[in-house]
Amino acid sequence: MRQLEEGAAGHRLIRASAGGASLLAAARRDPALAQSEIAFGQPHPADCLDSTTLRWIEVSTAGYTRYDAEFREEMRKRGVAFTNASDVFADACAQHVLAFMLALARDLPASHREQLGARGWPYDERRAQSRLLTGQTLVMLGYGAIGRRLNELLAPFRMRLFALRRSVHSEAGVRIVPESELTGILPLADHVVNILPDSETTRNYVNARRIGCFKAGARFYNVGRGSTVDQTALLEALTSGRIGAACLDVTDPEPLPPQHPLWTARNCLITPHSAGGRHDQEAALVRHFVSNLAAFETGGPMTDRIL
């Protein structure tokens, strides 16, 4: 808060009457927003729509599902700027995916299970199961800040990278493909990384048909949203061995109930929506906002600008 107060010097800072339980939690309605020109955090969409003074909204998450297309179109008509915080979370999410990939490649989960159990020394087996990422093929479903950072992190492994994106303009180090080419690309992938946000067009996007296009034994990673995956189809693919492993940081629902079969599914690793986590998260969000505030004041380019 001190950093925020210092960074917003010259502005009147109004705090929300009630904080959210987490960054992903929807905010309560707050009449204080009616006094504001700038909103930072997770303002209630209805409060934003009711406002006659708002000039800029910065949400404190990478995703912005609750601020849907209709909401954004209305903000665009009013000339209200809209930014998210993708840059704060991109490196953490990309490193989380890389950690998953390396852990599976080097068979670390099996060694950890051995340490917790029989404490044997399966030297030959473990070496035989270890793989190199070098030269393998990866397909990203979605290509934004996280995908670009993952591209950079994977450069030393000389992998072949493809990425699905609606806007098919070229990017360094990766071949961007339209949806019409996806089913032809998926069979090439040793790794499929899902970074899709939740929307009407992405729900259950990774379904039985698309999973059926995966190379046998391919590994699947989800750091997008749980709603974008048909989890029944994913379970079937894990059980049959169609998918070699799944690493899930997001699920549907969240938290994942203790009795859910994904917890005990074959070769399934689950983390509690922690991929974007970093120990300095709040300070990083403030730095992002303060930097954008300076740009907003001078009319300069703003980081992670959506509108």
Return the structural class.
alpha/beta
Shape: elongated
Strand order, largest beta sheet: 6-5-4-7-8-9-10
Low-confidence spans: none
Element string (H = helix, E = strand): HEHEHEHHHEHEEHEHEHEEH
What order do the helices and strands come in, and which of them pair?
Elements: H1 2-7, E1 38-41, H2 45-50, E2 56-59, H3 69-78, E3 81-83, H4 86-105, H5 108-116, H6 123-129, E4 137-141, H7 145-154, E5 160-164, E6 175-177, H8 182-185, E7 191-194, H9 208-211, E8 218-222, H10 231-240, E9 243-248, E10 268-270, H11 281-298
Parallel strand pairs: 1-2, 2-3, 4-5, 4-7, 5-6, 7-8, 8-9, 9-10
Helix pairs in contact: 4-7
Structure, explained:
This protein is α/β, with parallel strands linked by helices and 307 residues long. The chain folds into 2 domains: 2-84 and 278-298, 3-Layer(aba) Sandwich (Rossmann fold), CATH 3.40.50; 90-270, 3-Layer(aba) Sandwich (Rossmann fold). The chain has 11 helices and 10 strands. The protein has a 7-stranded parallel β-sheet with strand order 6-5-4-7-8-9-10. Strands 1-2-3 form a 3-stranded parallel β-sheet, with helices on one face. Helix 7 (145-154) links the parallel strand 4 (137-141) and strand 5. Helix 4 crosses helix 7.
